[in-house]
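Hi there, hope your week has been kind to you so far. It would help a lot if you went through both lines with me. No rush at all, and the record is pasted right below:

***
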Amino acid sequence: MTPPLAAEAQPPAGPIAAAIAAAGRVGPYAASDFEVTTGDGAPLTPAAKLYFAKEYIAVPKSGIPVAGVGSGMTAFDDVRGWAAGSIRASDDARPALVWIAAPQLVAGARLAADAKTLQVGGTTIPFALHPKLDLNRSYFDTSSAAFFAERPLTVRGEMRGAAFVGRTLWPDDFRVDPRAPLAPLPQAPSSQAALRDLMRATPDGGARAPFASRVIWERTGSRRGGSDQPVLVVMVNGAQGDDDESWGGHFAIGTGVLPASGRIDDLLINNFYSLDVVSEKGILAAPVPLDNYLADLNSGQAWYRPSLLIIATLSDPRAAMVIQGAFNRVYPQFWRHQLVYQHATMNCASISVDTLRALDWHVPARGASSLPLAWLSIPYALVKDRSVEQARMAYEYLTEDQTRLFPAAAFEEIGADLLRLATNGVAADDGALPRMLADDLTALITVRVPQLPSSRKYGSWPVVSPSEYYGKVPRDPAHAQIVPVPPRPFPSNLRDPDLLAPPSRRSNIALLVWGAAALVLVAFAAWRIARRFLGS
């Protein structure tokens, strides 16, 4: 199924390998379970094919189990029903696809200072960069070339003619030290506060800091770093330095295996972005290898902002397999639009948190930001912006559970709950998945990934409340930096007949109440005017 390369583009023997074969793993799964193809050559659903037809993906080989999807139900009801049986069975059905973006991989490469060649072993290969997308406002520059020339790299790309065209550049020294000594987080009022302090240790959230890993907890008597270890990954990406819509950051859950070498580039990250706009970075919502997620030349998060990860190492893969299995079922529902991305109510943090909650992991909720402000935001936005949609969004942002709304809040709450399970064990109301984690956790490792140098302004840490957000964005909307992106509506002919109607927006009630109040005020004013007129 692998798309053939043109005769003149066959790779030289030795240094270049198929992308997943060289990696050895696809997250928690063996690479040998997958094959590389493009979406138009794979047995995908019409909805998935819409987004991945021309993209390189890894798909399960014939005979390998693939995650299914529930009919006529929400994505999270689907996960709940599936989990009732799979929590004990550790269902390991593979994802329908993994977006790898490029079909080949060069490991242990050295980039020339001018970024024109790669040195691999004793072979020099002409090198070129994958083109910058038109909507992308920054790109690889001389500072990028200097950074990458200093270290060995793993490069995903494709031979085109005599040159290797690189799409993802991953620094090989970005790896965890599993044998590092224990260094618990400093004392703070709470685990959430300690994680926030770590995230904000520098004004730029670590954007310019070196890559660093730190073991913040380990089980007494456990042996770290001696062999492959199953892992669960919790990741928050910071704010971009040149986009005032990005102060909330981004969030993702991942799974995989941490080898003795500490490499993390082939961990599998569950990335959710809106499908209904064309991303200026070319991002598509899908499971992706961590090196693609962070270091793809256009879509990689590390080109835009710093990141902080918690890697939970486990003695048994069962919890990670259940979590990944749940996301494997959520994606088909997302692609077919049973689950629809909404910035206020169903974003990257919302989807991730709801998936874990559907698995009976009671990720703590922080509640709404401010109910009084939410109600007052309706008339304020109607007068100020003269927009019903802006009034709706303001109300929905302020009434949303902050753990679901803010990536940083999701990171803090899930990270703190992992620390609770590790140090205190389970509570009476914990479900089967948290009990697995409490039994299987062997270490918690934080990983700071800096922003990669480029022509883009450096980013910072993500905000964790509406007040922080409004303290960052310009008061005058005309001064805000916003990247307009074109819409990409989902074709009506691809809507499956079993899709449920979208849920009613909770702002409907607020609009009705304010509308009724306005009618009463108008009627009262009319009555007073009429009474005065008739009385005169």
